[in-house]
Amino acid sequence: PQPTDLVLESSYTKGLCIPSGRESLDRQDITMQVLVLGATGNLGSRCIPALLAHNHSVVVFVRSEAKLKQLVQSAALDKCTIVTGDATNADVIEKTIVENRCDALINAAGLAAPLPYQEPRMQAIVNAVTPATVRASEKLGFPIRCWYLGGMTVLDFPSLPGTKISS
């Protein structure tokens, strides 16, 4: 910020600046550092170019960087930070959020309806991502916006214990 800029310090704006001579922020002035989990899937791979088109910075969290490079154009990936890891590892997710100072997280990881021979991972992913995000938010000192995509994420799976999310 310039000395004449007004710095907003609410929990929603987290240090955004209104340049001097302007009364408010335009939509294009608001950008976020967004962590995308599950970027090799249908939803996640579509989030990357959409976020970049809106001038957000993107951190991509995937199990396979090679698969990501097959699905997403290199021109888009060149603008991203790529982190390889397992979406069920809360410590690695928390570290990624903190090191990249992410403002938001999009979880598109996990299959909503795995094939009969596959083990469901959705609940394990949610059980890792949610507390990792809460801890990262506490360390960073600002709220992190989270979007869980895929529909089934918010539902309980039959025969699996439910998830209680505490603040």
Could you characterize the architecture of this molecule?
The protein has 167 residues and is of the alpha/beta class. It has 5 helices and 7 strands. The strands form 2 sheets. The protein has a 5-stranded parallel beta sheet, sandwiched between helices. Strands 1-2 form a two-stranded antiparallel sheet. The longest helix is centred in the C-terminal third of the chain and has 19 residues, at 122-140.
The proportion of residues in beta strands is: 15-25%
Query: H/E series, N to C?
Result: EEEHEHHEHEHE
Residues in helices, as a percent range: 25-40%
Going across the biggest sheet, name each strand in turn. 5-4-3-6-7
- Shape designation: globular
Which parts are unreliable, with pLDDT below 50 for 5 consecutive residues or more? 1-20
Rounded mean pLDDT is: 78
* Structural class based on helices, strands and sheet pairing: alpha/beta
Alpha carbon gyration radius: 17 Å
